[in-house]
Write a structure and sequence with these properties.
This protein has helices spanning 3-10, 16-43, 49-55, 87-92; strands spanning 58-61, 70-75, 78-84, 126-130, 141-143, 147-149, 152-155, 158-160, 167-168, 189-193, 196-199. It contains four helices and eleven strands, in the order αααβββαββββββββ.
């Protein structure tokens, strides 16, 4: 028997069971590694908890909102105002049409179809509006009082932006000749019932 044959004869026999165990272990480690590698990719398809909260609809209680009163809330990082207009406020809306840049709300990007009317609202009594000025995003002051103001002699009530003096009426329509280029934005909204408004959900049947 040659030396090569002797060496060959003493080589241990392959342990098939041990090899299968090693292969299985290696495969399991590889699968775990692949799982960790894929996690960031898969996670990127899911919005973060913060993103879900920011984008989620917000319900507002308006059951104790008095006529002439405005409440503010936050939705998607924006200040949303809900104004319960008095009958006089509603009647005064057409009086300022000739002073406005877009009295008929013809810019469709500024409100949903169900708010493309004189009141810019589903119900004339309630105005739901994004309070941020369409010039540079300041939040205008709500000045409901009718009468002479430092910025307007024949003021019929509305919103005045102290940052750059833009003016909006009680439907959020922008006055002519001010820095703001367009009306305040009406966000998507709907009435859950007579006492609750849902911001971020379109009115039923609306596109």
């Amino acid at each position: 028997m040659s030396d090569k044959q002797s060496l060959a004869s003493v080589e241990p026999k392959a342990d098939k069971g041990r090899r299968m165990l090693l292969l299985a272990g290696t495969g399991a480690v590889g699968a775990v590694g692949a799982g960790f590698a894929a996690w960031p990719f898969l996670a990127s398809w899911k919005p973060s908890a913060r993103a879900r909260v920011i984008g989620a609809p917000v319900e507002a209680f308006i059951g104790d909102l008095e006529p002439g009163q405005l409440i503010r809330l936050q939705w998607r990082g924006q200040t949303i105002g809900i104004l319960r207009r008095t009958e006089q406020m509603i009647e005064n809306l057409p009086d300022v049409n000739d002073q406005l840049a877009d009295p008929s709300s013809e810019n469709e990007a500024q409100q949903p179809p169900y708010a493309s009317n004189l009141y810019r609202a589903i119900k004339p009594e309630y105005l739901v509006i994004n309070m941020h000025c369409t010039h540079l995003g300041c939040v205008p002051e709500f000045i409901p009082e009718v009468g002479a103001q430092p910025f307007e002699q024949n003021w019929k009530g509305g919103f005045f932006c102290p940052c750059h003096k833009s003016k909006f009426d009680l439907a959020g329509r922008v006055y002519s000749g001010v820095p703001a280029p367009t009306n305040l934005i009406v966000p998507p909204y709907s009435f859950v019932d007579d006492e609750h408004v849902m911001i971020g959900v379109h009115s039923e049947g609306a596109v």
